[in-house]
Amino acid sequence: MPFSTHRPLPKEIRKLQDSIEAKAAEYGLDFFDTVFEMVDYDEMSMLAAYGGFPVRYPHWRFGAEYDEMMKSYSYGLSKIYEMVINTDPCYAYLLTANELADQKLVIAHVYGHCDFFKQNAWFSKTNRRMLDQMANHAARINRYVDRFGYEEVEKFVDRCLSIEDLIDPHLPFATPREEVARHAEEERKRHETAPPADRFEAKSYMDEFVNPRETLEKQDRERKERDESARDSRKFPERPERDVLLFLLDHAPLKDWQHDVLSIIRDEAYYYFPQGQTKIMNEGWASYWHTTIMTQFALDPSEVVTYADHHSGTMATSPQRLNPYKLGIELFRDIEERWNKGQYGSDWETCDDRGAKENWDLELGEGREKIFEVRRVHNDITFIEEFLTPEFCAKHKMFSFAYNDSTDYYEIASREFQKIKKQLLTSLTNHGRPVIRVLDGNYRNRGELLLGHDWGGVELRQDWAKATLSNLSELWGRPVNLETTVDDEPAVMFCDRDEFDVTPKNPRARRRRPDAMRFG
Amino acid sequence: MSRAIDRDSQRFKKIVRGKIRGDLKKYVTQGEMLGRKGRETVSIPVPNIQIPHFRHGKKGSGGVGQGEGEDGQPIGRGGRPGDGDGPGTAGNEPGRHIREVEVSLEELAEMLGEALELPNIEPKGRDEISATKDRYNSVRRTGPDSLRHVKRTYKRALKRSIAAGEFDPKNPVVIPVRDDEEYRSWTTRPEPQANAAVIYMMDVSGSMTEEQKGIVRTEAFWIDTWLKKQYGGLQRRYIVHDAVAHEVDEDTFYRTRESGGTRISSAYAACEKIIARDFPPSEWNVYAFQFSDGDNWGEDNADCLAKLTDDILPDCNLFCYGQVESPYGSGDYLRELRRVEGEHDRLILSEIENREAIFDSIKDFLGTGR
C-alpha cells in the first residue's frame, strides 16, 4: 500500500514510541501494531478531511473540510494534535511542529485508541483492511468519473451522502438475512405439512363425533385460503427496514455504476459508525491511558507545565456541550474507584447510611480489571446506562438543558439524576439523529416509498427533511413519503423531486395494512 | 506535485463561486456587501453548501452540560435556522455553520463582468504613470516591536552569547539585548500602470431622498469594483451640488443633504476644474458619473450642455448620466441630454427606476468597453 509520506520516523520519536509501547503493553493494553507518521499541518488537515485515510474518492466536501481546518488553524482557533485510524496495523499521525512533551502525550493517547479499536466489541465487525478498501473505493469511483463525467458522478454521490446515515447499526451483529429467511421458510413448511392442530384428542370410537369430518375439512380449507391470501398480500419490506441504503440497493432502479457507488457509501458509513457509537468511551479510555502513562512514566520534570497545560485544555468543559474526553475519563476513573472499594452490588445499593457509604472500602482492588472489561463490552449508551450515578452527576455539576421556543434560548432544565440520564441517553441514541425506517416500498400501490420517523419528542428540521427527501425521491425514481410529526400532530411529508407537501396524517392511512391502503 | 486534496478544494471553491454567481444579481441590487468590505476582499455568507440529512429541529431538543447555574438559566442561543446543531449531543459532530466565503473584489468584478457581459476596457495606451508599492522583503536594525523578526533576533543573540563565552548548553538561556534586535522592513518600488480617475457628481438638493442615495451608493460601489479590476490604480473624486458645487470626500458625498435649488452647471464647472488640476487627460483615463433626479433650473440647461459638450466630454473616456427616479424630481434633465446623445458616443444615459434597475444600468454605463 503506497503511503502518505515515506519519511522515516526521527530517531528520538522512534525511541519514544518503543518505550511507551512497551509500557502500554505492560499495563495490559492489547493493540495492533502501530505505525506512526510525522506530518506537517497541511498534511494533517488533508488526512483529517479524508477521515484519516490518504486516498479517498474525489469529492468537494473533503475540500470544504480541509479549507475549514486550514482556516481555523491559521486563525488560531483550533489545532488537530493527533489522528489514528482503525486498521491493522493502526496508522497514527504526529504533527512535526509539536514539541516533545506533546508527542509523548499523543503517542500514549494513540495506544489507548489502538487498544480500544482492537478490543471493543462494537469494532469487532469493522474492516481492518480499510486502507486498501478506501483506495479501492477511490479507484472505482474514479473509473466512473472517467466514464460518466465528474459532475454526473458527483451529483449522484451528493444524493447518496445525503442519506448515508440511514443504516442499521445492529446489522453487522445480526443473523444474516438469508439464514433468517431460510428458518422462516422451514418453519412455514413444517407448519403446512403438520397434521391439523384443530383436532381434539378423542378415543377412537368417539372420534367421529368429537371431530366431525365436515368441520375438519372446512377448517382445513379456510386455513389454506388464509395462508395463501397472507402470502399474496405480503408487505414489502416484511418488517420496517432500518437499513434504508440496503433497501435502495435491493429495490431502487439504479444503474450498475450507481449501485456500486451507493454500496461504497454504505460500506464507509458502516465502517465509521462504531466510532460515533463509542466516542465518550474511546476518548475517555485514551485519555485515561495518556494521563496514566505520562504521569507515572514518560513525563520529564521539565515538561510538567507543558503537559498540564495541554491536558487541561483537552479536558475543558463548557455549559453547552459535554466534553466526551472529560466525561469518559472521569467515568472510567469513577468505575475504577468504585470497584477498587467494592462500591457496587446490592449491599451498596441498599445501604441508606451516608456515613457508611462515604467510608465504604472493601479493598477489593478490582478496579483495573473492571475498566478493562467495560472497555471491551460497552458502547456509549450502555456505558452511561450502567455506570452514570447520581453522585457522579452531582460531583461534576451536570445538568440537562432544553430549548425554549419562546425565548430562542437553550436553558438549564434540571439537575435531577433521572432527567439528566434520560436526556443524555436520548442525545446519544443513534448519535442524536432521527431514526428513519422504510415501511412500504409500494405505498398506495403506486410504487411510492413510505418511510417512518420514530418520533421521540423532537421534530425534524423541515428544510433539511425536504432536501433529503428530494434526494431520496431522485434515487427511488418515484415519490417518497415520510410519516412523522409536525407541530405536535402526526403528519406525512410528501416529496416528488422538487414538489414538497406536508399533510396531516389521514386516519385511514394510519393502518398500514395493504387492504386499507387501497382506500388511502 | 498536485495533491488530491487540492483537486477537491478547487472543486469546492468552484461550487461556492457558482452559488455566488447564481445570486449575483441579488448581491448587486441589495448592496448588502458594502458594509462587509475589507481591504481587498468581501466576505459573503453562502448558505446551503452542505449535504442535507435528516436532523432534529430545535423544538423539543436539549442536551446535557456541565457547570454552575440555576434551573431556567439560559446557556446559549438557539441561533438562526441554518446555524447548525446548536448545543447538544456529546460532541459527536463539529458544529456546522453558514460558511462565510471570502471573495476578492477582483474576482467579484470578474463575475460581474461575466454576468453583464461587460467588455474589457482598453486603457489609453499610456503606462508611464507610476504607482508605488511597498514590499516587505528586507530587514533593518530599527523598527516597531510589531515588526520584530524574532528568529533573526534570537539567532543574533545566540551568536553573540557564544562569541562572548556566556552560553551554557546545560542552561540554554538566550536573552537578546538592544543590539541584537532585527526588524522586518520594506522597500518601495514604482510600478508602471495605466491610471484611471473617476469623478462622481451627485445632486443633493432636497428632492433626493435616502433611498435614491442608497441606489447611487450601490451603483458607485460596483462601478469602482469594475474599474479597479480594469486599471491598476483608481483615483476617486466626489462632487456634491445643489445650486453650488463642492468637492467632498466619499463619506460626505453620501451623507450630505442640502436643500434649495439645483444648478447642474456648477457641478460641471467643479468637475472641469478637478480634471485640469489633477488628471491631465493625456495621462489619465477619466470617467465622470453624474447622478441626479433630473431636476434643474430651466435657464441653466443651455449652460450645462455647452460645458458638457465643449469642455468635459473631450477630456473623458466616458461621461455617464444616471437619472434616479424620485418622488419629487421632474426628470426633465434627461430629456435635454437625449437631444444631444446621438452626437456624442462618449455620453451614456441611463434611467434607474429602482434598486432592481441597478444591474442593467451598470451594463448601460460599462458595456461600451471604453
Automatic annotation (TrEMBL), chain A:
Pfam families: SpoVR, SpoVR_C. Residues 434-485 form the SpoVR-like C-terminal domain. Residues 211-236 are annotated as: Disordered. Residues 11-432 form the SpoVR protein-like N-terminal domain. InterPro entries: Spore_V_R (IPR007390), SpoVR-like_C (IPR057008), SpoVR_N (IPR056174). It comes from the Bacteria. PANTHER family: STAGE V SPORULATION PROTEIN R. This is SpoVR family protein.
UniProtKB/TrEMBL annotation, chain B:
This is DUF444 family protein. Pfam families: DUF444. Residues 49-97 are annotated as: Disordered. InterPro entries: UPF0229 (IPR006698). NCBIfam families: PRK05325.2-3. Residues 75-89 have a biased composition (Gly residues). It comes from Alienimonas chondri. Transmembrane segments: none annotated. Signal peptide: none annotated.
